[in-house]
Amino acid sequence: MLQFGFMFRKVLIANRGEIAVRVMRTLREMGIASVAVYSDADRTSKHVRMADEAEHVGPSLSSESYLRMDRILDAARKHGAEAIHPGYGFLSENADFAAACDEAGIAFIGPSAHSIRMMGSKTAARQTSIAAGVPVVPGTDHGVSLDQAREFASTNGYPILLKAVAGGGGKGMRRVDRDHDLESALRNASSEAERSFRNSEVYVEKLIEHPRHIEIQLMGDQHGTMIHLGERECSIQRRHQKVIEECPSPLVEQHLEMRHAMGQAAIRAARAAGYYNAGTVEFLVDQDRRFYFLEMNTRLQVEHPVTELVTGLDLVRLQIEIAAGGRLPLTQQQVSWRGSAIECRIYAEDPYNDFLPYPGKITRLSRPLGPGVRVDGCIYAGFAVPMEYDPLLAKLAVWAGTRADSTGRMIRALGEYDVGGIRTNIGFFRQILEDPEFRAGNLHTGFIEEFFERTQRPRPSDRLVAVAALAAAVHSQSRTTAAAQPDTPSSAWRQEGRNGLLR
Amino acid sequence: MKFELKIDGVDRPIELLRDGPHCRFRLGDAPERAAHVETPEPEMYSVLLDGLSYDTSVEETPACLVVVVDGHRFEIEVRDPRRWKRGGAAVGAEGLQTVLAPMPGKIVRVLIAPGDAVEAGRGLIVVEAMKMQNEMKATRAGRVLSVAVREGATVSAGEVLATIE
After folding, report:
1. Does B83 contact A480 at a Cβ distance shorter than 8 Å?
2. Each residue of A251-296: pLDDT tens digit?
3. What architecture does CATH give domain A138-206?
4. Domain residue ranges in chain A
5. Which residue in A68, A238, A268, A299 is the catalytic one?
6. Among A54, A213, A234, A328, which has the highest number of CB atoms less than 10 A from its own CB?
7. Could you tell me which residues come within 8 angstroms of residue A22 by beta carbon, excluding any fewer than 6 positions away?
């Protein structure tokens, strides 16, 4: 263990995108130098431009770059980084990587390799939780064959959920409602799991109808202290991926005893794995407010900003201090929750076309500002969103005194957010936040599907149509005028731009 | 100047009666209206209409103009007889199915070859972007006329991948 008062001078971030930028910001505030790594596709990405030092680690394909432990460790040695922050995704929940860092004498900013092994695989985590007396959803504790899946379904009944043993982020996950669909669903889930995690094993779980997804943020030091920082509700999901998260949960806020009960259960599960640093225990909550352990994420979560806004803590700073051997600077009793925070994940995707990803070049960017607004992003005007990686562009988070006020603030902030050149889900979020069911806090993980079934896209007013028509006509007229003078330099640029669009 | 607009599929002719920031226009048969239009930033139009202020973005895409006002996204085809002429409208001819890329991405699998008979729902081509795979399926039975892409190729949204007759 490191000495009291020790702090790193240089940290490498084994990640890209908004999370690399997020970690760098805290490093800079702490006076610690940052080292970025990048693939071919990311040379001009924000995290590289922002870092103090940068090292190329391979081609665009993540398996050849961001997932290459040897190259990441070489980069850390070359630049003299004393610690590595893995962010989320990529190598963040890879126990071998944590162990390799240890062997190389480089601090891994996260839990031990042992804890990741106990909690990283969903089935191992279930066993750990059952042993710690934490309730779990009925399911198989191992990868299954078709026959075993069928047997589970006949015992527990449909619907069931197929999940990748090594999974996360909804990849390799399938809902199955009837025996007829089981075989093909299992095959698809398994091949998606193989592609995403190089592990095709899939297990089965009983599906809880209309559950809420509520998770507990944990933080523990290497001296045996562990506290929880309350819950986040992440029930608004598409394709099993969270898109809106908030703290506090509107349900827990009305039943505060749940925070304590879930917090203590999460701590028990984590303790059973000898856990330290930041971690999140995810629970499903059924309609009778019973909660079930879902999985533990042994890393910083995407949605950590809402916890930061409500608790006033910097989770990345705590992670770094803990990895440097420091003690938690506060006790459970000193943790307090103030106001309400909401986060929207801004993706390059088309919500009205099955949320299909929509990479491309950002032509225009204007970000929301003003009271209570936080943007964790990695984009700029002129940035081409690579098609190789997750389409998360930015996280927009707001804080206000009450949930009603933070909802209003988020709608205001979304209205100020303008991203040109690609499609995003910004307009769609406004619709969700204006929805009476959302405002009433009636959330569940199938909310978005149901929302699409019961609502229609809002019809624009006649005046809005007139404004759009007028802008289009004025724009076309300026184009015609520009085309009439082909020798002006501006039209040459425009022509080039048009050619680019038509290629 | 007159423009034949098609806004989200609906014909909306518009006439600009006076240019410049203080412009006058007539949309369809509606009475003439006055508005004030400025371009403070590239692709942005600030429109003042009936005392209300609208910040409007106008973006050119291969198929149409994309106009966003107050969170509403309009797809507007502009037909000025002298410009913006769009050929290719014959693609939707009777009996011909055109398979278009739904998103920019990479072709990971081509499951058909010219001459293949396909049934409705049959998977044709798999496009991948940002780790999401999307299988393009035949909307009805037919015979593959052409396949315009190869595995590994990069495509943009709206690009023709294959045709089926």
Report:
1. yes
2. 999 999 999 999 999 999 999 999 999 999 999 999 889 999 999 9
3. 2-Layer Sandwich (3.30)
4. 10-109, 138-206, 462-494
5. A299
6. A234
7. A316, A376
